[in-house]
Automatic annotation (TrEMBL):
This is N-acetylneuraminate lyase. PANTHER family: DIHYDRODIPICOLINATE SYNTHASE, N-ACETYLNEURAMINATE LYASE. Pathway: Amino-sugar metabolism; N-acetylneuraminate degradation. Its EC number is 4.1.3.3. It is found in: Cytoplasm. It is an enzyme of class 4 (lyase). Keywords: Carbohydrate metabolism, Cytoplasm, Lyase, Schiff base. The active site is at Y140 (proton donor/acceptor), K170 (schiff-base intermediate with substrate).
Length: 302
């Protein structure tokens, strides 16, 4: 039986691209250390933020290997997202993640032949579990993007004892009532990671103890401070920091889509250059980049 004890902040890291759109693995050790130095103990590779679905299988393997190697130095938990591609490739990526020593695996659902109910999703995850039988497996619930909107409380309750390596979910949904019910499902046995930058304070107040959110890459102090304030029962302080974080997110995303704008923000206020977003995502134009570079620092301080 696998053991999964990680809780806390996990950064869904960007995939850094060179100017010729090849992946930049050379920056990974510096990137990992940058986050470790700012009290970010976990790394998610190939999430939505990491543009996993825009990479080939070979690229995803190479980048996963770089992050697992870096994590051995920084002592960070390395989670690899393997979904978002053809099912044989999903299973190949899961087996590869276990082979290279990833600490855990996350997967999107099947995105074309979508699961229509809880049992479909259990069956899908069971096949992935079978090819990585020694590595904790988590499910990536992001219905707005995946189109799969299975109730997580029902799914978690029904999953008990049916997926040998299953340990929890990444919950990227603004419905905190369902999120709370997922936390309590199956006597609270599963890890539930919040995946929403603008809901950290209310979610933490409800009992969430773990977050995977894009802003952790460049505003980690905001996330750590919100969670610490809630634990100390400093409600107004936590709310005030959340308001600052939300204001920063609004400035970042004002002129474009989530990933391209967040990459510009990372480049603007940290020493880590992750480049631009790969096609088919649309990047900001030069004027929009300059606007973000000017406006973000004013709202990015605690």
């Amino acid at each position: 039986m696998v053991n999964f004890t990680f809780r806390g902040l996990m950064a869904p890291v960007f995939t850094a691209f060179n100017q010729d759109w090849t992946i930049n693995t050379a920056i990974v050790p510096e990137y990992a250390q940058f986050l470790a130095d700012r009290n970010v103990p976990g790394i998610l590779v190939h999430g939505t933020t990491g543009e996993g679905s825009a990479l080939s299988v070979a690229e995803r393997k190479r980048l996963a290997e770089a992050w697992v190697a870096a994590g051995k130095t920084t002592k960070q938990h390395i989670m690899i997202q393997v979904g978002g591609t053809a099912f044989p490739d999903v299973k190949e990526l899961a087996a590869h993640a276990e082979k290279i020593g990833a600490d855990s695996i996350l997967t999107l659902p099947e995105l074309y032949f979508k699961p229509s109910n809880e049992q479909d999703l259990i069956d899908y995850l069971r096949e992935i579990s079978a090819v990585a039988p020694n590595t904790p497996l988590l499910y990536y619930h992001i219905p707005v993007w995946s189109g799969v909107n299975i109730n997580m409380e029902k799914f978690l309750t029904l999953s008990v004892g049916k997926i040998p390596t299953f340990q929890g979910i990444k919950y990227t949904n603004n419905d905190l009532s369902e999120g709370y019910n997922a936390l309590k499902a199956a006597d609270g046995r599963y890890a539930v990671f919040l995946g929403a930058d603008t809901l950290v304070q209310p979610a933490t107040a409800l009992g969430f103890d773990s977050v995977i959110a894009t802003g952790i890459n460049f505003l980690p102090d905001h996330f750590n401070s919100i969670m610490a304030a809630v634990r100390a029962n400093k409600v107004e302080e936590a709310r005030a920091i959340q308001e600052k974080l939300t204001a920063a997110v609004k400035v970042v995303t004002k002129n474009g889509a989530w990933v391209p704008t967040m990459k510009v923000a990372m480049n603007a206020i940290t020493p880590i250059d992750v480049g631009l977003a790969r096609s088919p995502l649309k990047n900001l134009n030069a004027a929009q980049i300059r606007e973000l570079q000017v406006d973000l620092p004013a709202v990015a301080t605690l």
